[in-house]
Amino acid sequence: EIEGDQMPLNLGSCDHALCKECVRRWEQPNGSVICPTCRVVSTAACITKSYGMIKLLKYQQKEEASTRINELEGRVGELRVGKASLQSLHKPLVCVPLGS
Q1: Prediction pTM value
Q2: Domain 4-88 has CATH 3.30.40
Q3: Where is the RING-type domain positioned along the sequence (predicted)?
């Protein structure tokens, strides 16, 4: 979930997006924020959540999780193949005759 200091915010006067932590860094004593990209001043009242950026970040997180799951599933398959090949190489130390 995207929240806290990582929450993307839009600066209303220029529509640039910054994380909440960065907005705090650029905040002036009167509560306004100077955009680090274009230097336009936005009042505190016109700073809003960047819903488009939130949607994009959630999509990216989902894609990264899906990629990671696929990688792990592939490794599990490799481990199963490795286990099977090791079992075929295994020879018991004592041979027990069949039917005993």
Answers
A1: 0.62
A2: yes
A3: 14-39
